[in-house]
TrEMBL record:
Extent of Gly residues compositional bias: 437-501
Transmembrane segments: 21-42, 54-73, 145-163
Biased composition (Polar residues): 386-398
Positions of the UniProt region annotated as Disordered: 329-350, 375-545
Name used for this protein in its record: Uncharacterized protein
The keyword Transmembrane helix is assigned to this record: yes
Organismal lineage: Bacteria, Bacillati, Bacillota, Bacilli, Bacillales
Length: 586
């Protein structure tokens, strides 16, 4: 019984010793973790490090956790508790009784009983005054450590509150790393698309080699964004050259498919070309060869004439192989030969090969432009991150973006004003009106908005002569009245904003098409009209791209959609007619 009482009392002493040890070690861990966190915060102002605030909390938490874990692992034993009781005034009575109970010391029964009684009494007295016997350390013992911890947290608070110039740089580097990883993933996806595309082996190897070179460069350059942008710019130029080289093939196929789709006997081949399906083209050519014998001489002549016409269209486009293939097919069609004679070439087979080559070039153009868009998007994000880091974006990247037409916006400002005056007339009277319109703005890419024109119209024998506007912005309208006698009254167009110099084949997407302000119209006498003024025209902030490029992309996408979805024939015809009417060369 006394044995159990003694161990129960010693366990209470042991628990308090363990608690004090754990708290002391946890405090030491917090102090060490705080010191490590403050050092990391300081390094975060010298180097671009991410999430230093989070790491401060992690270090402090780990320090506390480590201290508690060590305290539990190094928890006090019963013998340590016995020594603590003896040091409190028991004079080794508890340790002696403990040795006897554990069999480490031999003694007579009477002595053992007396030792246990003495040990129990000493332990009871010690436990009753446990808080006094094992007090928490006094403030003077904790003061230095507490002041040190408070100082560390004051320094940490100052480092956290004051702006850190390296933080934005670190975030930019992190985003750059994410962009590079994303680009690596997109390159792998592009290689998969390349394997599925209808490309001949030469075109496939050409594009695959370009992508593989870019992938290797990205891996070797790491996070050197400037060098990465230079490499991306070089790849953009290569892809742009590929797209330009094969651009004419796409246009030729579109022209051929459009004409064939409207011609009886060739509509299946035309539809196969629209879908850019090489296997469908092969089937259509085989069916045409089989049906050739059933056609009348007049029908074959009509088809041959169309093929010859299509062949002549290719001469101006530099497609000699396709032109020759169409001519051979036309000759075979006119002669009514379903298959080639021994030792002679088959015109339809030659046409099939040429069309297959054209489909490969068209697919190459689409893939090259698609990959260029992906690279341009990722590169733009890298360039933005490089600017945030205080670095300089390579000029080669800016030039490559400008050439590819994937970036740029219109900017410009100006007021739209128009003036209208009526010229003297000799006979009769009339009221000429002039209208100015323009398309303004200048793009960073180097192109400018289209020039506007001010046509005038006269009534009663007078005619308005067109004027030319000048300025920038998107044009407003101006009208003016004048009257004259005689049959030669004329009004001259006024000046309007929104006019510039540049290529007319540019497509601009404005944010707003409406001007501001009221238009005032003053009537003028026969000797000349008064001035009218228009309101302000808003600046258009959009992008400009060659109309032919935009048309080709939208037309190709529409054809893909028609191939994927079963639509009524009438609706398909409407879509085809729409794209026929808005062709760049119409």
């Amino acid at each position: 019984m006394e044995r159990e009482v003694l161990y129960t009392l010693l366990n209470k002493v042991k628990a308090r010793i363990t608690l004090q040890r754990g708290v002391r070690l946890a405090f030491a861990g917090l102090l060490g973790g705080s010191a490590a966190g403050v050092i990391l915060l300081g390094l975060g102002r010298l180097f671009p490090l991410l999430h230093v605030e989070l790491w401060l909390l992690i270090f402090c938490s780990c320090g506390i956790g480590t201290g508690v874990a060590v305290g539990i692992w190094k928890r006090a034993t019963v013998r340590e508790a016995a020594r603590a009781v003896d040091h409190g005034g028991a004079e080794d009575a508890v340790m002696t009784a403990l040795d006897v109970l554990e069999g480490k010391t031999r003694a007579s029964e009477a002595i053992v009983r007396l030792q246990r009684e003495a040990a129990s009494e000493a332990a009871i007295e010690y436990v009753d005054r446990l808080k006094e016997k094992l007090p928490w350390p006094a403030w003077r013992q904790w003061r230095k450590a507490a002041i040190g911890l408070a100082s560390l947290w004051l320094v940490a608070a100052a480092l956290l509150l004051f702006p850190n110039p390296m933080k934005d740089k670190a975030q930019a580097m992190s985003e750059a790393r994410a962009v590079l990883e994303e680009m690596q993933s997109e390159l792998e996806e592009s290689k998969e698309e390349l394997n599925e595309a209808a490309l001949n082996e030469e075109d496939r190897l050409k594009l695959e080699q370009t992508l593989e070179e870019l992938r290797k460069e990205l891996e070797s350059l790491g996070l050197d964004n400037s060098e990465v942008l230079k490499e991306l710019a070089e790849t953009l130029e290569k892809l742009g050259e590929m797209a330009e080289e094969t651009k004419q093939a796409m246009q030729s196929l579109q022209d051929i498919s459009r004409e064939m789709s409207k011609t009886r006997g060739l509509e299946e081949l035309g539809q196969a070309l629209e879908k850019m399906d090489a296997s469908a083209v092969e089937q259509a050519v085989d069916r045409l060869r089989n049906e050739m014998k059933e056609l009348s001489e007049e029908e074959r002549a009509q088809l041959a004439d169309l093929l010859e016409e299509l062949a002549s269209m290719q001469e101006s486009k530099g497609a000699e192989d396709l032109q020759e293939a169409l001519q051979e097919a036309a000759e075979q069609m006119r002669n009514g030969e379903a298959a080639a004679s021994a030792g002679e070439s088959d015109g339809l087979s030659t046409l099939q090969d040429a069309l297959g080559e054209g489909l490969s070039k068209a697919a190459l153009e689409q893939l090259a432009r698609s990959m260029a868009d992906r690279i341009s998007e990722g590169g733009s994000r890298l360039a933005e991150g490089l600017s945030q880091q205080g670095g300089e974006v390579p000029s080669s990247w800016t030039e490559a973006i400008g050439k590819s037409g994937t970036s740029g916006s219109n900017s410009g400002s100006g007021e739209n004003s128009g003036s209208q005056s009526g010229a003297n007339g000799n006979d009769g009277s009339g009221q000429p009106t002039g209208e100015t319109q323009g398309n303004g703005g200048q793009t960073p890419g180097g192109s400018q908005g289209n020039g506007g024109q001010s046509p005038g119209q006269g009534q009663g024998g007078a005619s308005g002569s067109g004027g030319q506007g000048a300025g920038s912005g998107n044009g407003g309208q101006g009208t003016g009245n004048g009257s004259g006698t005689g049959g030669h009254g004329a009004g001259s167009g006024g000046q309007g904003a929104g006019l510039g110099a540049g290529d007319r084949n540019l497509v601009t997407t404005p944010r707003s098409l409406e001007g501001e302000g009221n238009v005032e119209v003053d009537g003028g006498p026969a000797t000349g009209g008064e001035t009218q003024t228009g309101g302000q025209s808003p600046v258009i902030d959009g992008t400009t791209r060659p109309y032919e490029d935009v048309y080709n992309e939208y037309a190709a996408e529409a054809k893909k959609s028609l191939g994927r979805t079963k639509l009524p024939a009438s609706l398909q015809d409407k879509v085809k007619q729409y794209f026929d009417e808005i062709q760049p060369d119409r």
